Amino acid sequence: MHFALTVPTVEDRLVQRAVARILEAIYEQDFLPFSYGFRPGRNPHQALRALRSHIIAGKVRYIFEADIRGYFNHINHEWMMKMISQRVADPVILKLIGKWLKAGVMENGVVRRNEEGSPQGGPISPILANIYLHYVLDLWFEKRCKKWFQGEVYLVRFADDYTVCFQYKRDAENFETLLRERMRKFGLELAEEKTRLIHFGRFAREEMAKYGEKPETFDFLGFKHVCGVDSKGKFALVRIPTVKSCRKFLDRVHEWLKKHNHWKRRDQQRHLRQMLNGFYQYFSLHHCEPKLEFIRSQVRLQWIRSLRRRSQRHRLYWSYLTNSKWFELPYPKLLHPDV
Hints:
By secondary structure, the chain is of the alpha+beta class. It has helices spanning 10-27, 44-57, 77-85, 91-102, 125-148, 169-185, 202-209, 243-259, 265-283, 289-310, 318-322; strands spanning 62-67, 105-107, 110-112, 153-158, 161-166, 196-199, 218-220, 223-229, 235-241. It contains eleven helices and nine strands. Strand 2 and strand 3 (110-112) form a beta hairpin. The two termini are 35 Å apart.
């Protein structure tokens, strides 16, 4: 699928930012506690902590993970304007939002008008996307769905990435049927290949162990979630960086080294340290250290290959490098003990 960004002018960006602040002030009092994306004072680690709490402390046996296909490109403009007019009466603001929604994108020199989708690339985009799912998913889940469930159920959403925890399989299956109908009503569709229901949690682990089986894993916010055990043999939720997250970071390091092969070693070291520390800053949770050690070793290997390619005269032996101050890179450490 092709995605195009609508890049606003400088003046438009300023106006969008001002309108985004107004919408934020209005909707922050409406948004529900289990929504974490694109909100002031909220971040992915809080969403991960909430999900962990539900799985550890709740009676969670099943996880429903869903993915909305091309979410930002399929927001229905008519529904969007109806939703916003519920809380915003100012005709000037409504007219501006309508204009931004329909703003064209330049593709191969031709301007194409948007009939659906949110204007990605502008300051207004995140809040509009959040408002749409607030009405489509959050309120519907909280006010309608919860009445139909027999057991415990928890939703954790970060932008268009969300996971639902269930106590009973029947509740989860009913929810999936209802969710598909709900998405269709608002012009959205679940990506079949990324939408599934799995047996997961401490109860699932005990039940499946009787048959010599292990629960499946699922990904959320860049982490692979695994049913594990702690040092005392009790159930523990293990989160490690996904293969996709690691590959994406290492590809970025590789591209950077290719473009900056001519830089001085000390300057390369400084930048690579910053890149690694940025990766650690997000992924340094319990159980992640071995994977982060692996990432560090891969960055060192990429760097040495890059240095060897540019230095034909010096073989840059490993013993020489490991004793060189300029070749040192930071080691990972636990940065989020409470997540």
